[in-house]
């Protein structure tokens, strides 16, 4: 059952949630409250991923990259997966409501609903699904922020948009690499409809360029100091640089380079956020 929760994705959700919690905390971080936040978030994230696999088991069965997952391989029945996913999702939202606060629980529920019931079906219908899917992908850092008592202001808005924009080159590059697999799965991805990759390359560059100034906003609004600002600027230039290279010539090695840089970019940026947060 653990494989249904997509542990790597759940770990990323917990990383962004923890960073949001630290950034949103006023004064000393409450370790017990952080633990409650991460536990509830992990349950909801795991349930969300399991429900996604349940709804996409037919697609997963057609794709080489996913056909060995528990549902298409027959190792777990749809009924068992549905009960498991629903149970941990409900328990997770309830736990956040009781142990953290209602706003954080509501954000977790919104993440689940938008991912499973909006993004997941749209993957079969429109290439805009990537934009829609970036919303639930960016909400956990907001949930971490509100769990620590932070208010919904410009600073957390900047964190949301950083996560939102970071995902787009990351997923577009991955979709280009696995475009034939996505075609077999019947998914409406930009890479499937973009034979020469020119549109994919342009969109990767566009989103990387948009991320660069947005990533500097935490320092502009006083959440972080100069160390974060300089580090975010350097990371943004590197991310944009590999985006430029892909836009000039789209091929698998350059797409892998964008993906690899994106994997380093986010934890590095969050580390800078934690290290250089200005005490309030």
Task: Give the helix/strand layout.
Blueprint: H1 7-24, H2 31-55, H3 57-62, H4 78-99, H5 102-122, H6 129-147, H7 154-177, H8 179-185, H9 198-214, H10 217-220, H11 226-248, H12 252-275
List keywords for this structure.
2 domains; Tetracycline Repressor, domain 2; 280 residues
Could you explain the architecture of this structure?
This protein has 280 residues and is mainly alpha-helical. The protein has 2 domains: 1-152, UbiA prenyltransferase (Tetracycline Repressor, domain 2), CATH 1.10.357.140; 153-280. Helices cover 75% and strands 0% of the residues. The protein is built from 12 helices and no strands. It has helices spanning 7-24, 31-55, 57-62, 78-99, 102-122, 129-147, 154-177, 179-185, 198-214, 217-220, 226-248, 252-275. Helix 1 runs antiparallel to helix 2 (31-55), helix 5 (102-122) runs antiparallel to helix 6 (129-147) and helix 9 packs antiparallel against helix 11 (226-248). The longest helix has 25 residues, at 31-55. The termini are far apart. The mean pLDDT is 93.
Mean pLDDT across all amino acids: 93
Radius of gyration: 19 Å
Helix content: over 70%
Please state the second-level CATH architecture of the largest domain: Orthogonal Bundle
- In total, the number of domains comes to 2
What is the helix tally? 12
- Please indicate the percent range of residues in DSSP E strands (runs of 2 or more): under 5%
How far is the first residue's CA from the last residue's CA? 42 Å
- Helix and strand element order: HHHHHHHHHHHH
The total count of strands amounts to: 0
- Determine the oligomeric state from the structure: single chain
Shape summary: flat
The CATH superfamily of the largest domain is UbiA prenyltransferase
């Amino acid at each position: 059952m653990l494989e249904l929760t997509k542990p790597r994705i759940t770990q990323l959700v917990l990383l962004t949630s923890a960073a949001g919690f630290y950034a949103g905390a006023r004064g000393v971080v409450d370790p017990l409250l952080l633990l409650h936040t991460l536990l509830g978030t992990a349950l909801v994230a795991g349930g969300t991923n399991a429900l996604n696999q349940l709804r996409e088991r037919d697609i997963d069965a057609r794709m080489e990259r996913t056909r060995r997952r528990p549902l298409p391989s027959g190792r777990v029945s749809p009924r068992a997966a549905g009960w498991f996913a629903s149970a941990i999702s409900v328990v997770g939202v309830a736990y956040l409501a009781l142990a953290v606060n209602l706003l954080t629980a509501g954000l977790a529920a919104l993440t689940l609903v938008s991912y499973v019931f909006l993004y997941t079906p749209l993957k079969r219908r429109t290439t805009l699904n990537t934009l829609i899917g970036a919303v639930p992908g960016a909400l956990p850092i907001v949930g971490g922020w509100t769990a620590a008592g932070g208010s919904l202001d410009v600073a957390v808005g900047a964190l949301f948009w950083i996560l939102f924009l970071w995902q787009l080159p990351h997923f577009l590059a991955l979709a280009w690499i696995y475009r034939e697999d996505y075609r077999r799965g019947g998914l409406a991805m930009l890479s499937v409809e973009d034979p020469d990759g020119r549109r994919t390359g342009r969109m990767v560059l566009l989103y990387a360029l948009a991320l660069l100034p947005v990533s500097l906003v935490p320092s502009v609004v006083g959440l972080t100091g100069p160390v974060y600002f300089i580090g975010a600027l350097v990371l943004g230039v590197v991310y944009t640089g590999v985006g430029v290279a892909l836009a000039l010539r789209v091929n698998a090695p350059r797409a892998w380079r964008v993906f690899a840089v994106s994997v380093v970019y986010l934890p590095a940026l969050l580390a800078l956020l934690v290290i250089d947060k200005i005490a309030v």
